[in-house]
């Protein structure tokens, strides 16, 4: 079907959050607890393609109890942020990359692919009405959550012929309650996240649903996130419940798992680019759990960090498992970890030149 211009209808929220209340939220936003006044909603049908693009008041979505998403989890989402620069302007980081990843997720979940231009435009439309929700305190941003799901009501198992795409937004501070302090990670040995040929590379709700039980186990052991191994051999590291992982070797090489069952993180890709620009070697390859464990024990691995949109770059001090623990929970954050974090956030907040053309003005 030929792609046409999407002309958004904007219906302002008649009962927006009062300014004073919004300012109080922005002063201490937490993560994912408060939502802006509006949301984007675009319909898709097999016959009509993408249509009826709207910006409307944030509020409940009405669903038929037989809506396919409620039964067969045909759903995908994205996560990116809007940053306020010192001059007040609002920018997002590589939104086209999120748009392309949403398309890859859509393909895997048999959902329609939203054109990347519509994706970026949908974010611009939301910021045009909710720009005042982008906080300006250090390290804060507006987290944007585009998502798409099967709305058609039927109980047969097949791709839905009616789908909706939405964007909601939530002011955000640090994802972990301790801020940027090093965290401990729990190695899940009883559960895996995704198998070969499964949906691990897609950003789909089911991957997160299956991570909740092992994540609860991580909390029970005093850990902030759970680490998954490959499902077939339980030998190779994959990723955390909601973040990618990178190991730093003593010679400055950065090593990160390559696998077709993990999410290709945009933060990780960017951090590795910044490290490469500084002359660091970068290895994207299979990494065994023993390489992590023995590397920390022998001093060959000197830093480990988690990275993702919500977590930005978070140092990992310790890896705990049923039968071993490596690293010291009180160890300070790694130097390279923190300096790459600083460089990335300096670009995102407009404090450093955007030499890779990653920023898009909203
Ligand atoms: N892996 C998982 C499972 C995630 O949920 C995320 C977060 O989006 C990432 C990795 C990191 O991806 P990105 O850096 O694009 O946010
Ligand atoms: C993100 O970083 O955008 C995610 O989706 C991960 C989730 C833990 C919030």
From TrEMBL:
Pfam families per record: Aminotran_4 (PF01063)
Entry EC no(s): 2.6.1.42
Keyword check for Nucleotide-binding: no
Cofactor(s) named in the record: pyridoxal 5'-phosphate
Signal peptide: none
Record-stated family: Belongs to the class-IV pyridoxal-phosphate-dependent aminotransferase family.
Designated name of the protein: branched-chain-amino-acid transaminase
Lineage: Bacteria, Bacillati, Actinomycetota, Actinomycetes, Micrococcales
């Amino acid at each position: 079907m030929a792609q046409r211009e999407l002309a958004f209808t904007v219906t302002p929220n008649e009962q927006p959050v009062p300014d004073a209340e919004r300012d109080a939220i922005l002063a201490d936003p937490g993560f994912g607890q408060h939502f802006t006044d509006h949301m984007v909603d675009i319909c898709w049908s097999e016959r009509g393609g993408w249509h009826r693009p709207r910006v409307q008041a944030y509020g409940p979505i009405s669903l038929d109890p037989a809506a396919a998403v409620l039964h067969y989890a045909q759903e995908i989402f994205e996560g990116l942020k809007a940053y306020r620069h010192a001059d007040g302007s609002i920018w997002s980081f590589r939104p086209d990359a999120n748009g392309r990843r949403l398309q890859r997720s859509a393909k895997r979940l048999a959902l329609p692919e939203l054109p990347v231009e519509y994706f970026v435009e949908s974010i611009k439309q939301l910021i045009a009405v909710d720009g005042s929700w982008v906080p300006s305190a250090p390290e804060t941003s507006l987290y944007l959550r585009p998502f798409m799901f099967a709305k058609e009501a039927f109980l047969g198992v097949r791709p839905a012929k009616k789908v909706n795409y939405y964007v909601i937004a939530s002011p955000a501070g640090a994802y972990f309650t301790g801020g940027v302090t090093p965290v401990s990670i729990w190695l899940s040995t009883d559960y895996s996240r995704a198998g070969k040929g499964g949906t691990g590379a897609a950003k789909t709700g089911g991957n997160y649903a299956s991570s909740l039980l092992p994540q609860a186990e991580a909390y029970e052991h005093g850990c902030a996130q759970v680490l998954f191994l490959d499902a077939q051999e339980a030998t190779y590291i994959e990723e955390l419940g909601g973040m990618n992982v990178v190991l730093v070797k003593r010679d400055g090489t950065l090593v990160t798992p390559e696998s077709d069952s993990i999410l290709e993180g945009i933060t990780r890709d960017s951090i590795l680019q910044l490290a490469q620009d500084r002359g660091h070697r970068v290895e994207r390859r299979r990494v065994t759990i023993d390489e992590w464990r023995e590397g920390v024990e022998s001093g060959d691995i000197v830093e480990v960090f988690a990275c993702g949109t919500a977590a930005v770059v978070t140092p990992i001090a310790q890896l705990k498992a049923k039968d071993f623990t490596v690293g010291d929970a009180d160890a300070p954050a790694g130097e390279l970890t923190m300096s790459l974090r600083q460089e990335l956030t300096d670009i995102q907040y407009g404090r450093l030149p955007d030499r890779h053309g990653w920023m898009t003005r909203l």
